[in-house]
Amino acid sequence: MITAFLLNLFLCSNGDESEPSSTIAEGGTPVILVHLDGRRFAGFLSDLEEDPLSVLLLDSTTTTVPKRMVDTLRVLQGAMPEPKPCVVLLKDGSQRRGLLLEDGFEGVRLQVGPRTERIGLNDVAGVRWRPTVAQEIEARRAAIRSSDPAEMARFIRWLIMEGHLEAAEAELAKYTKDFPEAGATASQLRELLAARPQLEPQAPKRSSKQRRTALPNGALTPIEVNRIRIWEYDFENPSPVRIPGELRRTFHARHLGKEGFPDLKTLRRLQDHEFLRLLCEMKDRDLYDEVQITVDPPALDRFRRTIHDRWLLPQCGSCHSRESSPGGFGLETKEANKPEVRMLNLLLLEQATTSDGTPLLNWRIPSESRLLDLGKDPRAAKHPHPEVEGYTPIFHRGREAWVTNVIEWLKMMYRPRPDLGSELNIQWPRNPPKSEQSEGDKSAASPS
């Protein structure tokens, strides 16, 4: 507990990892030190300049290591106040790009697209900062001669290929004005700019009071189920996933020319889950629907086995159905063994609140979720279930594991928790498929 507290106090530097921070937390700078004979020391270094180095180990003992016997010394960045772009260098020579959430004694926690990836300490060789988009553009602009049309054209092409389309459009307008004799080049750049897809449209500003997305009756669509599985995909424990060859070619063509991007031959050799990781890293959400995940990732599988099928549907759903919805909460009970219905129930559970507006699920402190309180014996609950005929406690003596399952499941799910209803752009009512049915039958058709 003490070492974790000290690590959280540590403030990371803004420079490269090769320049350790001069900021010292109480207890020293958190480091990983490797002795020439292969021994590893994890702890806090009080002075980076002293010789021998004095390291306060995690077991609260102190050891000294002469500098001449140090093979490598890596300063840990600690927990990030805000996610920061980085490249994690692995010992097998590969790299992981993403947003650094934490670099601690247990390893690195990295946000890659819509998922958090954890990399064990023994696999990490180092962490290198990546410049922000604005910093990278400014550095590129400073390295060229603005009076040279050829260099400016290469700069604009780089902006386009990297997806910085607004900046590219502004630079191209200036290029056309400054170099009227380079009309052919400007025309080629305009064609290239027009061919690039607008991947990240600016999201509309949300009001301070967010309105929940209305969810459909009956079921989600297979595409929506697939998207939820991508959000919850666990790269540390990958589930079966299929990437069509056409998607690899499309993905390669889109990012062709980007610095450090793998060639088509390398992309074809990537395992399917590694390709998905790269797809998430590049944030090509418009291509997600081409990915085929037919098996629930571990978090969703745990929800199915230990919560949804075990007690949520058979016990809560016996009263709280979509038809009756007592207290404003109802589950879809028809064909609930289908993933399309189970995922809908997951979204319904996420949206559900009590009469005082408190969500049933507490993602920040899972053990304090109202769902757990409502399932206890009312005499032992802080916020008991309303007195209704036929109610029986779910979490009685002997079912302590059921409570643990809920807490562990909430910890497994992706966080910070997105509003999946909005992320999936779910709209209801849906237009039913055309058929020879009567108008009355059409209105009752299954939305899936």
What can you tell me about this protein's structure?
The chain is of the alpha+beta class and 448 residues long. It has four domains: 2-129, SH3 type barrels (Roll); 139-195, no CATH class; 241-290, no CATH class; 298-423, no CATH class. The protein contains 15 helices and ten strands. The chain has helices spanning 2-9, 133-142, 149-161, 165-178, 183-195, 222-231, 245-255, 264-269, 272-281, 298-316, 339-351, 370-374, 400-412, 420-423, 439-443, and strands at 29-35, 40-45, 53-57, 62-65, 70-75, 78-90, 95-104, 107-112, 115-120, 124-129. The strands form two sheets. A five-stranded antiparallel β-sheet has the order 4-3-2-1-5. Strands 9-8-7-6-10 form a five-stranded antiparallel β-sheet. Strand 8 (107-112) and strand 9 (115-120) form a beta hairpin. Helix 3 runs antiparallel to helix 4. The longest helix has 19 residues, at 298-316. It is globular and about 80 Å long.
